[in-house]
Amino acid sequence: MSKFTQSYLDKLEELFGQADYTVRYEKGNFKSGFCILENSKVIVVNKFSTIENKIGFLIEALRQLPFDETLLDERSRKLLHELQQKELSL
Predict the structure, then answer these.
(1) Model-level pTM?
(2) Mind giving me the DSSP string for 10-71?
């Protein structure tokens, strides 16, 4: 897996954006660090989490949500497949 950097977080945010999901960073009391509002395609991530945790939360959300791959460019499609197949280890 790539390093947990702001650049990698940006790639994940771009992937979600291409799939018509909105990623928002808010403060909140969510036990898992993120909340998925499925009907509105919004993922809310705890803004006080570290970059590593934000990336982990987005990868976890990515594995739970349906993605229309036809909306993704080649780079995002490749990242999606890579993340769906690998085990997450933080």
Answers:
(1) 0.84
(2) HHHHHHHHHTT-EEEEE----TTSEEEEGGGTEEEEETTS-HHHHHHHHHHHHHHS---GGG
